[in-house]
Design goal:
The complex is a heterodimer of chains A (306) and B (248). Chain A is mainly alpha-helical and 306 residues long. Chain A has one domain. In chain A, 70% of the residues lie in helices and 8% in strands. Chain A has a two-stranded antiparallel sheet with strand order 1-2. Helix content of chain B is 28%, strand content 40%. Chain B contains 5 helices and 12 strands. In chain B, helix 4 packs across helix 5. Classes of the chains: A mainly alpha (306), B alpha+beta (248). The interface between A and B is large, with 58 and 61 residues.
Chain lengths: 306, 248
């Protein structure tokens, strides 16, 4: 059964979309990742125009983050003050990102930039995850753990505009989270991701936040940033396909339920290694498409007066 | 939506340049439908063209979608990566173009006629907007046509017009799933002795219909409302999913 997607302007099998939503939803249930960084390339692979894939995925992430943040909220794992500082940066970044997106699109370079960003980030994250899970599989027998300091002091702590974040037990310059939020906002607009995969490590290693509040706070911030990106993409570029977003979402809800249950039963390290391999595979496929000689070097742009 | 006066009007306008040739021979044609609706379940459709002619001329049918400006880009290798470099914009590019005939065109239609009436993809009049050399322009033009053919927007379907008893003719117009919207012009030409003796033009409206059309219209006419709605729907879906989670 096919369904015509009004903004992507293509006819796609409805079960393919539901299945993709379910598969990515399951992954996010198992690993606690957003899944945007896998869904957007998948949409591009099935022929959705990259610009529409990015805009629509931002919309879908609003939904999955809302659903995800509530559990953390109930447990008090959201540092609202930190979230708001990240958020201010995120709004700036995502607005700039949509503007950049629009400019690149009129230059005919948006597809390239989307693909390059994916190759870059998926490559780094896939490799890091793979190395980490390989190491922890090897380390399983050796149980000796050394207690680390909460965080290291370095030049970053000399920056001005210091602010106290009680929930995170931090006293750091507000510029840092502002900057992190800003960078993640740009990624949300250009790549159609929540940016959790960049923000979570940045919060832990760069800001030194306690792990317990990291996921909740990042989800809190992602809701607003992806909402901003969704609105601006719809307003400026008309690249948000509500029908597509709803179909992916329906699949994702079911998938995430299964995933959460499955995740509790399965072994973490092997699974994480598997996810890493998948991320690397998607990255390699995208990179290959950029490097391989195209069947036809000529391409049609968008029709004008359409 | 029917335009009873539009067809004769277009016919009159089209007849003007070649007035002396397109007068005498009578020709009548019509479509089984005047509107194609792209609904949510649209996967392409078939429209029947039928008509009658007098005399022993041959029939050529051209299906042409609305014309727009279109940019063609060429990728070049930069630091190992294929990047869009040169681009040429063309004016008046048909968004859809199909020629149907009863016999292979090469054999009996003179180039002059094909050129005048734009019969065949190579004869489409599409001018580059930018200042490019003729060699470069023709490369980009070929690429435009090639890409349109690849996605099924352009085509020449020879032998697809069937003539019954020398007078009646019919043709099935297959319109694919990725059909662009707008006003189409279906031109039926009666060709005799290598010359177009008569033309009949019938409009066909291709329009989005149903929920898909409303979504599309809203996205382009009220983008702010659309964006806000997208967020509201997403938040509602997220809350709904969460409520469902807690119960199970």
């Amino acid at each position: 059964m096919h369904i015509y997607l009004p903004i992507a302007e293509m006819s796609v099998n409805i079960f393919l979309l539901l299945g993709m939503g379910a598969a990515i939803g399951m992954l996010s249930g198992i690993f606690g990742v957003g899944g945007g960084f896998l869904m957007t390339p998948l949409l591009i692979f099935i022929g959705v125009p990259p610009a529409v894939a990015v805009g629509t995925e931002a919309n879908q992430i609003v939904a999955s983050s809302v659903s995800g943040v509530l559990a953390h909220w109930r447990r008090g794992n959201v540092d609202i003050k930190m979230g708001i500082v990240l958020l201010v940066g995120g709004l700036l970044g995502s607005s700039f990102g949509v503007w950049l997106f629009s400019a690149l699109r009129s230059l005919g370079q948006i597809d390239l930039v989307i693909r390059l960003s994916y190759v870059f980030f998926l490559g780094i994250i896939g490799l890091l995850m793979f190395v980490e899970s390989a190491r922890s599989i090897r380390r399983q027998t050796a149980t000796a753990t050394t207690r680390r300091k909460l965080h290291q002091h370095n030049f970053l702590h000399g920056l001005p505009f210091k602010m106290r974040f009680r929930r995170s037990k931090l006293y750091i310059s507000a510029l840092l989270p502002l900057l992190v939020g800003c960078l993640v906002g740009v990624l949300a607009s250009i790549m159609g991701v929540g940016g959790g995969f960049v923000m979570v490590p940045a919060m832990i290693y760069l800001l030194g936040m306690p792990t317990a509040v990291v996921v909740g706070t990042s989800l809190f911030q992602i809701i607003f940033v992806t909402a901003n990106a969704t609105f601006l993409q719809a307003y400026i570029n008309q690249t948000v396909d509500i029908v597509l977003a709803l179909l992916l979402l329906s699949g994702a809800v079911i998938g995430a339920q299964l995933g959460t249950k499955l995740g509790a039963l399965l072994r973490g390290e092997q699974l994480r290694g598997l996810l890493a391999l998948m991320v690397i595979a998607v990255c390699v496929k995208l990179a290959y498409d950029l490097i391989a000689t195209p069947a036809d070097p000529y391409m049609l742009g968008e029709a004008v007066g359409h | 939506m029917r335009h009873p006066f539009l067809a004769p009007l277009v016919l009159l306008l089209l007849a003007l340049p070649g007035a002396e040739s397109a007068r005498a021979e009578p020709l009548i044609a019509d479509l089984s439908e005047s509107v194609v609706r792209i609904t949510t379940g649209f996967t392409g459709t078939k429209v029947l063209l039928f008509g009658a002619k007098e005399g022993d001329g041959r029939i050529v049918v051209i299906v042409e979608g609305p014309r727009h400006g279109l940019t063609v880009r060429r990728k070049d290798r930069i630091a190992g990566i294929w990047v869009n470099r040169a681009e040429v914009r063309f004016r008046d590019v048909p968004s859809f173009y199909q020629v149907l005939s009863s016999e292979p065109l090469e054999q009996w239609l003179p180039l002059r006629t094909r050129n005048t009436y734009q019969i065949g993809v190579e004869y489409l009049k599409m001018q580059p907007e930018d200042d490019v050399g003729p060699a470069e322009a023709s490369k980009f033009r070929d690429a435009l046509i090639r890409n349109m053919q690849r996605i099924g927007r352009y085509g020449v379907l020879e032998g697809k017009v069937s003539v019954l008893s020398g007078q009646l003719f019919r043709a099935d117009l297959y319109l694919p799933a990725n059909l662009p919207t707008g006003f189409y012009k279906i031109e039926v030409m009666l060709v005799k002795d290598g010359d177009v003796k008569s033309i009949q033009s019938t409009p066909l409206l291709v329009t989005k219909s149903g929920i898909g059309a409303e979504v599309y219209d809203m996205a382009y006419s009220y983008p702010a409302v659309y964006g806000a709605l997208a967020i509201v729907i997403a938040i509602a879906a997220g809350l709904g999913a969460n409520a469902a989670f807690r119960k199970i």
